[in-house]
Amino acid sequence: MTPLEHLAAALRDTRGPVLVVTGAGISLASGIPTFRGTDPGAVWKRDVTELGTVRYFNEEPEGSWSWYLSRFEKVLGARPNAGHAALVELERWCAARKTPYLLVTQNIDGLHREAGATQLVEVHGSARRVRCATYGCRYGAPRGSLAREAVDIGPFKAKPSRETVPRCPACGDFLRQHVLWFDELYNGHQDYQWQRVLSACEEAALVLFVGTSFSVGVTDQVFSSARERGVPVFNVDPAGQPIEGMTLIREASEVALPRLVKSLPPPLSPD
């Protein structure tokens, strides 16, 4: 039995909750570079631990906005690929079997939502939204945000400077990206749904990782919980390294995941 066949069999036998965690690797086929991957455009090759921080934004909001706008040119123009679509089919398959399902993505590209995912947590935020830098503002943490298209970024693009950084329409403070920065906590905004992630960790009967480097807190949290409880764990990653307690499927997600859902017994959609 191949690792992918092992995953399909485990899904067929599972009646408890299925938890899927995706990272940048699933969006590589959509043209979005990874962070820590081996692809030529991997963002981690630049010092994002310095640029992606509250400290840097507070010191140089115009620099923060410039960096993110250059990054988001590819993100906001991307479209879901076959891997995203296959996970939507997996969600529907689980729903038809009345099997609880949750997809937790570390990606901020919004492609899972665009593909049709509904049981979704964007645990690192969204490139498609911004928020006020002032805590407690109606458009700031812990609850508020704004759709990116509702903000006029034109003046900043025309002349990037501190004076043209987009401002909050409610309080006038700077707007910032609605993403989790390296010096912030998962519980910093309700949109990150951290408590929902923790609950899913404790309840999952099967865990599937897709395209993640296992370098951030959420992956460690999920994997540690699954390993402690003896839950089957699978990892789809063409460049993945063997990890004890985890079945590695060394294939690209846009290839492996469509094959996976095609191998599952019907129905592939809710009644």
In short, what is this structure?
Helices cover 35% and strands 15% of the residues.
How widely separated are the two ends? 31 Å
Residue fraction in strands: 5-15%
Helix content: 25-40%
Q: What integer value in Å does the Rg equal?
A: 19 Å
- The SSE string, one letter per element, is HEHHHHEHEEEHEHEHEEH
Which architecture of the largest domain would the CATH scheme give at its second level? Answer: 3-Layer(aba) Sandwich
The total beta strand count reads: 9
Structure description:
- The chain is α/β, with parallel strands linked by helices and 271 residues long.
- The chain folds into 2 domains: 1-32 and 80-124 and 187-271, 3-Layer(aba) Sandwich (Rossmann fold); 40-77 and 128-179, SIR2/SIRT2 'Small Domain' (2-Layer Sandwich), CATH 3.30.1600.10.
- The chain has 10 helices and 9 strands.
- It has helices at residues 3-13, 48-51, 54-59, 61-75, 82-96, 111-115, 154-158, 194-203, 217-229, 253-263, and strands at 18-22, 101-105, 120-122, 125-132, 146-147, 175-179, 206-210, 233-236, 247-249.
- The strands form 2 sheets. The chain has a 6-stranded parallel beta sheet, with helices on both faces.
- Helix 1 (3-13) packs across helix 10 (253-263), helix 5 packs parallel to helix 10 and helix 8 (194-203) runs parallel beside helix 9.
- It is elongated, with a radius of gyration of 19 Å.
- Residues 39-45 have low confidence and may be disordered.
